[in-house]
């Protein structure tokens, strides 16, 4: 039999016992479970960032993985606790949009509202509700054994991109990684070669020359979108398309966040040169 696998993603950090307590609860209920930490460094209460990081990670896990996701600023309120089954994994966490990126890519899904235990804290549902549910699913229990079916789940737009003019796209900063790289909501982009021009495409029907594009964030303007970090000298600010096909602002061997002072939620704009006929 396949060893049960539970992947965790939270905004708890690692200086407190919260993550360890949840693992202890799950190990007690599913002793054979293996645990993988995706991250516990989501910015506190930042649902959009949590949703983006989950969407970036889930596809690289086995399809039988149970994902325990606790980014839950509404803990103890009327927001609903969920368990979801998709064609690529099971998911446990709050109904606040943190699963929107996964559900946008799922061919089909089923969900239940979790039944609360007799004794539950108003402030630590990760321990008292979500961890037990994740362990039960990892042990082989079905959705209908732990909750009541539901079809309406919170699914706010994860990657906001506004086409504000014929030649301008606007989005926002959704994540700043350990290296100080600034990841934006502008995507998904695909590279295409056409003669000597390196083009970027974004559906529907937007195609433009990468090196002629202006990227603006805060008071900073960057000319051109590069293929990777090493295409510019060390210490140079650049824009590129990252491994998730999102626009990223970086410094080769440095921190773009420190250099620019950009923060989560700041607006980002790209102005591109329309190709003839567009």
Helix amount: 10-25%
Low-confidence stretches: none
Gyration radius, to the nearest Å? 21 Å
Give the averaged pLDDT, no decimals: 92
**What's the total count of β strands?**
19
Largest sheet: 9 strands, mixed
Put simply, the count of helices is 5
- SSE order, one letter for each helix or strand: EHEHEEEHEHEEEEEEEEEEEEHE
Query: Which structural class do you get from the secondary structure elements?
Result: alpha+beta
Please indicate the percent range of residues in DSSP E strands (runs of 2 or more). 35-45%
> Which descriptor suits the 3D outline?
elongated
**Roughly how many Å apart are the termini?**
56 Å
List keywords for this structure.
7-stranded mixed beta sheet, alpha+beta, 9-stranded mixed beta sheet, 19 strands
């Amino acid at each position: 039999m396949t060893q049960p696998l539970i992947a965790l993603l939270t905004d708890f950090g690692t200086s407190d016992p919260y993550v360890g307590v949840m693992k202890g609860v799950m190990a007690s209920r599913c002793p054979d479970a293996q645990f993988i930490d995706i991250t516990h460094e989501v910015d506190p209460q930042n649902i959009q960032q949590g949703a983006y990081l989950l969407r970036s990670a889930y596809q690289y896990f086995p399809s039988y993985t149970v994902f325990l996701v606790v980014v839950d600023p509404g803990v103890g309120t009327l927001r609903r606790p969920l368990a979801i089954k998709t064609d690529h994994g099971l998911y446990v966490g709050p109904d606040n949009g943190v699963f929107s990126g996964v559900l946008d890519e799922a061919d089909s899904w089923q969900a239940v509202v979790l039944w609360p235990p007799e004794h539950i804290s108003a402030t630590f549902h990760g321990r008292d509700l979500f961890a037990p549910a994740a362990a039960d699913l990892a042990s082989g229990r079905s959705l209908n054994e732990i909750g009541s079916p539901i079809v309406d789940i919170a699914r706010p737009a994860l990657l906001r991109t506004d086409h504000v003019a014929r030649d301008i796209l606007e989005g926002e900063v959704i994540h700043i990684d350990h290296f100080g790289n600034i990841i934006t909501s502008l995507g998904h982009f695909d590279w295409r070669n056409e003669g000597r021009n390196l083009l970027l495409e974004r559906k529907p029907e937007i195609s433009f020359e990468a090196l002629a594009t202006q990227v603006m964030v805060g008071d900073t303007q960057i000319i051109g979108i590069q293929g990777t970090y090493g295409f510019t000298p060390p210490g140079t600010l650049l824009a590129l398309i990252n491994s998730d096909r999102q626009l990223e602002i970086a410094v080769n061997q440095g921190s773009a966040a420190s250099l620019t002072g950009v923060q989560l939620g700041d607006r980002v704009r790209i102005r591109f040169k329309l190709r003839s006929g567009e």
